[in-house]
Amino acid sequence: MIPIHTRVFRWNPATEDEGRMVAYEVSVHEGARVLDVLQSIHDDIDPSLSFRSSCKAGQCGSCAVLVDGEPKLACMTEASDGMEIKPLNLPVIQDLTVDLIPGINQIPRISADTGTGLPAHEEIQAIKPLRDCIECFSCISVCPACDVTAFTGPAAMRGFMRIALDPRDSTNRIGKAIEDGLFTCTSCGKCFEVCPKNIRIPGKAIEKLREIANKAGLTLPRHQEVEKLVQTTGRSVPREKLTFLEQVGEVIEPEGEVRGEVGFFVGCMFNGRLPDTALDMLYVMRKNGIRVIIPPEQVCCGSPLIRTGQTSYINTLRETNKNCFSKRGITTVMTMCAGCGATLKNDYPDKPFVVKDVTEVLTGYGIIPTQKLPVIATYHDPCHLLRGQGISEEPRSLLIPAVQEFIEMPSICCGSGGGVRSGVPEEAAALGENRREAIRKTGADIVVTVCPFCEYHIQEHTDRPVKNLLTVLREGYEAMESSGRESTDDK
């Protein structure tokens, strides 16, 4: 037996104004699960502790709780000393028991008497990735849209798509899905990250439902405008000033010896809205011996269209982008935009090159250390980088040595993704305000990120400067050069 110290949330709303964390120590067998700890507290210390459990095999979903801030099935999660156990972010009935009824009632159910018969094999295969939901509501508990809108949540959207694929139910429910918040999902991917059944709700359900909505002529007007812009100009943002591609040549040679070579996928935001940040990247690459090849005929990656369900033009964009890099013999394509990187990595089948984020490239080759900037910095994790590409440590390993002090900040969606900033601006603004508060709590001087959409959006919701990581590195190199020149002058 081993001792486990834990703190558990306790609250009875019927008799107490607010909840509290209570410390417990129990002895459990090695390898015990969180549920074993809760059961031991209940049986040996306090029988009034309220929590749910049923199957104890990860199939009923009833024991979902927050373990150290993340939704977990208590029966499947190994207990750790010092852990904190709280209820899901849902209305509390008592202690760890939350009210699941509203969520259950919002999940659409199949009406088997309206369809055409049993599903065919290929239909069953399409349904499989969506049918394993155990209605634990971990996804709803962490969904940023559910915090600021009337969105019924990822589990309900999964239910709508599961029914849409089943021939036994021929009722058209896309209108109801839209009413329940289909276009409020920011594609942050947090629901997939916490799902105990690994259901890819954004890609397998929400984006597919948006495709159905598009075919029915129900795409949001602002999203339709973006699609038209992409089809007519190849870009998702209009040209307002001299673009990045108009300012640079096709091949940017490094200073000194060539240590590596990449093709650069610019993306619409860095090309049209934030070209100076892309120029900062070239400065850093040249400083570190990396040749950058920039095909001028590249176009939008298609992310704004895929996320909003407008997929009729996607293959044209894919082929244009794949060809412009492959015909130059480029084997590594580098992105600076988290959304572009996630799209090229996950939505471009049979691509003839490897896709790497700029932070992967720089940490892979290693960089010349910069002079530390005299600032306190915090870092915002772009959703399409953190969850879309699994990249977290690389940007931090570059940022931390470049600043005087680094302070972590919770990884929460800023609200700019999934077409929400353009289609549901009030929701995007509310999520941006959440970021403002999180930034304020850090006390940081600057906010650093590596996504142009996040950079652009967060800057509208904070009085702190928001800078791209590559801009920070350029400033560090320039400070180092200035310091070196001053030392030389002093001599």
Task: Produce a short descriptive summary.
By secondary structure, the protein is an alpha/beta fold. Helices cover 42% and strands 15% of the residues. It folds into four domains: 2-98, Ubiquitin-like (UB roll) (Roll); 103-215, Alpha-helical ferredoxin (Fumarate Reductase Iron-sulfur Protein, Chain B, domain 2), CATH 1.10.1060; 237-364, Rossmann fold (3-Layer(aba) Sandwich); 370-479, Rossmann fold (3-Layer(aba) Sandwich).
Overview of the molecule:
The structure is a single chain. The chain has 491 residues and is α/β, with parallel strands linked by helices. The protein has 4 domains: 2-98, Ubiquitin-like (UB roll) (Roll), CATH 3.10.20; 103-215, Alpha-helical ferredoxin (Fumarate Reductase Iron-sulfur Protein, Chain B, domain 2, Orthogonal Bundle), CATH 1.10.1060.10; 237-364, Rossmann fold; 370-479, 3-Layer(aba) Sandwich (Rossmann fold). Helix content is 42%, strand content 15%. The protein has helices at 34-44, 101-106, 121-127, 138-142, 144-148, 154-164, 174-179, 190-194, 201-215, 221-233, 244-247, 268-272, 275-287, 303-307, 314-326, 338-346, 358-365, 383-386, 393-399, 420-423, 425-442, 452-459, 469-490, and strands spanning 2-10, 20-28, 64-67, 70-73, 83-86, 92-94, 97-98, 251-252, 260-265, 290-293, 332-335, 354-357, 373-379, 403-407, 446-449, 466-468. The protein has a 5-stranded mixed beta sheet. Strand 3 (64-67) and strand 4 form a beta hairpin. It is globular, with a radius of gyration of 25 Å. The model is unreliable at 486-491 (pLDDT under 50).
